[in-house]
Amino acid sequence: MKKQILFIFCTLFLFNCSSSKHSKVNELDYLISIMQGSYTSEKQSIEDKEYYNISLKMIPIWKNKGHFLYVEQAMFEKQNSPYRVRIYKLSQRNNEFVSEIYTLKNEKEWIGKWKTPETFATLAENEIELKQGCEVILKKQTNDTFIGQTGEKTCPSELRGASYASSKVTITPSQILSWDQGFDKDGKQVWGAIKGGYIFDKIK
To answer: How many other C-beta atoms lie within 10 A of the C-beta of residue 45?
Structure first.
């Protein structure tokens, strides 16, 4: 009888561990699945002239290496000249999800390559550089939404006289809300949206 009870306990324990691990993997897969795609802030730019119509591309690459997204952000009418080219690496740490930000050393060579993601197989990892302190820590909410931000004053920036930058992000299956701001050493905002973040609607 004792052996039977022990066997049942062990079976349930292993099942719960397996289910927990499976759930975590699924949540990470789910996060990257809703992040990928093409977005635009056109609707917001029409409703509020203080916002531009921005194009955002987030395309999965390096699937055999983990969870990576190639990212291009540009004025909608200037998509051949993006002002931001990045690679995001997604991972999970306990109940948090981490989006690490990488720059590309020869980013001009990769502009537009989101159309052919397999091309990134030739991009070596030593050709990208981690932006230390600029990772976004995300937490899953009860409604399949992920909310997160960078650390406080951890992400250095020299753009337009800034000392550091911050990013606040909300991710849903149909939208990404992103509020990027730059601040000088005295905490005065020197770049980025003032009233709130950009609302990117997924178009495909």
So the answer is: 17
Q: How does DSSP classify residue 122?
A: G
What is the Cα–Cα distance from 100 to 133, expressed in whole angstroms? 9
As a whole number of angstroms, the distance between CA 71 and CA 178 comes to 14
Name residue 182's beta-bridge partners.
165, 191
Name the token pair of 142.
């009860």
How far is residue 107's CA from residue 127's CA, in Å, rounded to a whole number?
9
Q: What's the helix, strand, coil split of the chain in %, to 5? A: 30, 40, 30
What pLDDT, in 10s, does the model give residues 26-61? 899 999 999 999 999 999 999 999 999 999 999 999
**Residue 22: which pLDDT band, with cuts at 50, 70 and 90?**
very low
List the beta strands (DSSP E) in 50-117: 54-61, 67-75, 84-93, 96-104
Helix (H) or strand (E) holding 130: strand 128-130
Token pair belonging to 26? 């699924």
> What residue has token string 């990488």?
102
Structure tokens at 35: 């992040």
The model's pTM is 0.85
What is the average pLDDT score of the chain?
89
Token pair, residue 126, equals: 């030593």
Comparing CA positions, the residue from 140, 195, 198 lying closest to residue 173 is: 140
203, 53 Cβ separation under 8 angstroms: no
